[in-house]
Amino acid sequence: MPALVLLGAQWGDEGKGKATDLLGGSVDYVVRYQGGNNAGHTVVVGDQKYALHLLPSGILTPDCVPVIGNGVVVDPAVLLSELSGLNDRGIDTSKLLISGNAHLITPYHQTIDKVTERFLGKRRIGTTGRGIGPAYADKINRVGIRVQDLFDESILQQKVDAALHDKNQILVKIFNRRAISTAQVVEEYLGYAEQIKDYVADTALVLNNALDEGKVVLMEGGQGTLLDVDHGTYPFVTSSNPTSGGACTGSGVGPTKITRVIGILKAYTTRVGSGPFPTELFDDDGARLRTVGREYGVTTGRDRRCGWFDAVIARYATRVNGLTDFFLTKLDVLTGWERIPVCVAYEIDGRRVDELPYSQTDFHHAKPVYEYLPGWSEDISKAKTFADLPQQAQDYVKALEEMSGAPISAIGVGPGRTETIEINSFV
Ligand code: GDP
Ligand code: IMO
Ligand code: MG
Description:
Layout lengths: L2 E6 L7 H9 L4 E4 L8 E5 L2 E5 L12 E4 L4 E2 L1 H13 L8 E3 L3 E2 L2 H14 L11 H9 L12 H22 L7 H15 L3 E2 L1 H10 L4 E4 L23 H6 L8 E9 L2 E3 L12 H9 L12 E3 L1 E2 H11 L3 E5 L9 E10 L2 E3 L6 H6 L1 E8 L16 H14 L3 E5 L7 E3 L5
Parallel strand pairs: 1-10, 1-11, 2-5, 2-10, 5-7, 6-8, 7-9, 11-15, 14-16, 15-19
Antiparallel strand pairs: 3-4, 12-13, 16-17, 16-18, 19-20
Helix pairs in contact: 3-4, 5-6
The structure holds guanosine-5'-diphosphate, 6-O-phosphoryl inosine monophosphate and magnesium ion.
Guanosine-5'-diphosphate (GDP) binds next to helix 1 and strand 3.
């Protein structure tokens, strides 16, 4: 029966793709439940590297059914190009299922995303420019286009027309851009209908039936807890709910079916785009984390902002997601530092604060309070068991576990599927 949730515990890019791929071998379904092609999930299998944006990372596991849930926003052009890219590399993608209730990203969403960011100037969010926010805004505003609308030309026409009515006014009168033609959008999107129709299904029904039959379902989050529109560093967030509650609404699986919630946690911290980041480094240590950890965006190629581990954030992730486990990634990147700072609390206007402040202004002013843990110099990338790690690395992991509030059940010591120390099994 079990449904498992796997999600980012920080600001995204924690290594969710690798972790999902690793678990893919022991689960029957992998479901994306929110976000869209703003995600960039890297999976390394042997000497092959895959960058997935929209497709669930389970697509690389032959017996696993990949599912795009109702909570995802789908750019059909990206979907088709990602599928054909994988097919060209010999990956069978025929099992994919896409919810008919998932919303579509259209060219006008991308245009609005980009012009809005430009208009915001210094106050910009630093979005991926993929149209994510505007597509979710339309969903909530009840003028979104769903996957199922592709199969009824007259409905599609009416809905695109309704959606463009206001948007064209805004594009032309506020942003000084050309109006977008309904006919052009409809023609382009009808062209996608035939190509994706065989994948479309009532995915919530499929998943619940599978759970009733005793199958294992893994729900894979995009982005991360601090990018959640409700629980993250609003407004510097994405427009969906990567936190565990989003797994239910975004897949149609009820909370009583979920047995494990696994937070993917990097052994340090990164962030892409604007917004507060208390442990951010602007010195040689930050540059070294970026170089050694290869912290460059998979989707936009931007340098990731880098900083030390923040235990306040990890504790917060445990709380808002009800985490049962952590999967600690990229421990190998910390090899070679004599001592490693770990943020255990913040100082805000002279006061020590142990929990994430709910006031945005306070969070912007938060200064990290560091504890310094001894580092190690041995190569740990070949470690297979916890005992293989040098004592200082073991102590670092134990200290993080203690501070973060949930057991660390796996540790990543390299990007490859097998470069993982499994401590407690997930399935
Ligand atoms: P995601 O968005 O959470 O799936 O993460 P990304 O794929 O954007 O970024 C994580 C990066 O770290 C990828 O390049 C992974 O191949 C890599 N990675 C994942 N786990 C580990 C690890 O334990 N050690 C190292 N060195 N790299 C890792
Ligand atoms: P994965 O799944 C890191 C960030 C963007 C921006 C903010 C809003 O690979 O962890 P959006 O385009 O979603 O409206 O941008 O969210 N962002 C991510 N940062 N990893 C991601 O995905 C991200 N997806 C969005 O940089 O700050
Ligand atoms: Mg990523």
